[in-house]
């Protein structure tokens, strides 16, 4: 099942609205790189585990 990481679910002063979806490991990698490069977090195993714990199932939207 695809997963999604949505910045709106994380506390931030930037009011970032980015959402990343895909296979779990892809999302985890992209979200941790985004958290590091945009939000200034250190890309650590702890950060990746925190992000992993907050991933949600990506529910397909039907038109």
Automatic annotation (TrEMBL):
Matches recorded under Pfam families: DUF1059
Protein origin, superkingdom: Bacteria
Protein name: DUF1059 domain-containing protein
Species assigned in the record: Actinacidiphila polyblastidii
């Amino acid at each position: 099942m695809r997963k999604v990481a949505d910045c709106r679910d994380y506390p931030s002063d930037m009011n970032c609205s980015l959402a990343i979806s895909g296979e779990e490991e892809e999302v985890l990698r992209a979200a941790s790189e985004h958290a590091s490069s945009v939000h200034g977090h250190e890309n650590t195993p702890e950060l990746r585990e925190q992000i992993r714990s907050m991933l949600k199932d990506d529910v397909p939207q039907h038109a």
